[in-house]
Specification:
Number of strands of chain B: 9
Distance between the termini of chain B: 53 Å
Order of helices and strands of chain A: HH
Number of helices of chain B: 11
Largest sheet of chain B: 6 strands, mixed
Number of domains of chain B: 3
Structural class of chain B: alpha/beta
Bound molecules: iron/sulfur cluster
Number of strands of chain A: 0
Number of helices of chain A: 2
Distance between the termini of chain A: 33 Å
Structural class of chain A: mainly alpha
Largest interface: A-B, 24 and 32 residues
Oligomer: heterodimer
Helix content of chain A: 40-55%
Radius of gyration of chain B: 20 Å
Shape of chain A: extended
Largest sheet of chain A: none
Radius of gyration of chain A: 14 Å
Shape of chain B: globular
């Protein structure tokens, strides 16, 4: 529902990821982080929820 | 609706006189027309102050915890939505059923005060309700409008006008509405492309002054320290920076996920006329579609985000 609300607000769904990873699943952790990074990198750079501290 | 106020007053006077309840929470006339306000009445003499009309748009469940005595009961007058928030309060252990005496008031909707004010160029000096006919007076003119034409949006799409829980009813139940498209407003936003959706919400909240009236009017927002007021850590900045405004609105809404009854009190309270329900309506639609859930209907069921079920939608977890 959180992802859906973000998407409804116009934030790309791929910016929010959920996963269950046990502390013993190091390889799964690496895979998931890689996948997340790739997905987020594929999106346009976007500062929707980034605060501009230079102002 | 005007007839039921006599019944409400009689019930309240009797409850107070017999000592069955210590206080009654209801609505009283405000200092200007159309501005009815919540009131806690403690004596039989004061029940004459109670009113009920189409301007009672706040949600009285919000005030229950504030006035709850250590012992004994309070009575609350409850429209459909107020009663659902009372149920939510009970489900979330904010109050117990035996502390409440619920006077159910079937509701035919509350008026959109901004819509009415927009019909006038000058200040409204009187508001008279007679069934569906509203007579609104200002120094310049007198308008008669049909209440149906000036209902708040949440009341137009309400399907629970009758209280879901009560000890006594102040009037006969009213007919419930059935809607072909209960979430047309949400669908309308969903049909836009992502950039337009973002722009819609930016436009919606651009005048937000972060006064938190929307949060304060909401019965769901009872945390002793709200995340926006927390200073260590400070989750969100205090000013009108647009990222902070976005964060506030997104999180305020999400905290209402699976709990919001669409009572409209948040919108009613906003001094800037912002329809913050645009956020919660999406959550309400999802709660219904994903979990078959409408908040505040059942005292026995746990809210969907509060309980695990093997049938929960799982495909978002990798
Ligand atoms: S978020 Fe608004 S509509 Fe929903 S319960 Fe709170 S005040 Fe009512
Ligand atoms: S009541 Fe309106 S102006 Fe105040 S914080 Fe809420 S949305 Fe912003």
């Amino acid at each position: 529902m959180m992802g859906n609300l973000l998407e409804h607000m116009g934030v790309e769904r791929d910016r929010l990821h959920f996963s269950w990873i046990s502390s013993a699943e190091a390889t799964k952790f690496v895979d998931v982080v890689k996948e997340i990074s790739d997905k987020v990198r594929a999106l346009d750079t976007d500062k929707k929820f980034a605060k501009d501290y230079t102002k | 609706m005007d007839t039921c106020i006599e019944k409400i007053r009689t019930i309240c006077a009797d409850l107070l006189a017999k000592g069955k309840v210590q206080k009654v929470i209801g609505f009283a006339e405000g200092s200007i027309p159309m501005a009815s306000r919540p009131i806690a009445v403690t004596s039989k003499e004061d029940v004459a102050k109670l009113v009920f009309n189409a301007t009672c748009g706040l949600n009285l469940a919000n005030y229950v915890s504030d006035v709850l005595p250590k012992e004994g009961k309070i009575a609350v007058t409850a429209k459909g939505c107020d009663s659902r928030n009372l149920v939510t309060h009970m489900v979330e252990n904010q109050v117990s059923r035996d502390q409440l005496y619920i006077i159910g008031v079937p509701c035919t909707g509350m008026v959109d005060k901004r819509k009415i004010a927009a019909l006038f160029e000058d200040e409204i000096t009187d508001f008279i309700e007679d069934g569906d006919t509203l007579t609104i007076v200002s120094p310049q003119k007198k308008e008669k409008v049909s209440k149906k034409d000036v209902l708040r949006h949440n009341c137009r799409v309400c399907t629970h006008r009758n209280p879901v829980v009560f000890d006594v009813m102040a009037a006969e139940p009213v007919e419930e509405q059935s809607l072909d498209q209960p979430f047309a407003d949400v669908d309308h936003i969903a049909a836009m492309d992502p950039a337009a959706r973002w722009a819609h919400f930016q436009e919606l909240t651009k005048n937000c002054i972060r006064c938190y009236a929307c949060r304060n009017a909401c019965p769901l927002c009872y945390c002793p320290t709200c995340f926006v007021d927390e200073s260590s850590p400070q989750w969100v900045g205090k000013g009108q920076d647009k990222t902070d405004i976005n964060t506030f609105h997104f999180l305020r809404a999400f905290h209402c996920a699976g709990r919001c009854t669409d009572c409209g009190a948040c919108v009613e309270a906003c001094p800037m006329g912002i329809n913050v329900r645009d956020f919660t309506r999406k959550l309400n639609k999802d709660a219904l579609e994903l979990f078959g859930w409408e908040a505040g209907l059942d005292m026995e069921k746990r809210p969907p985000l509060d309980v695990y079920s093997p049938d929960d939608p799982n495909d978002f977890i990798k």
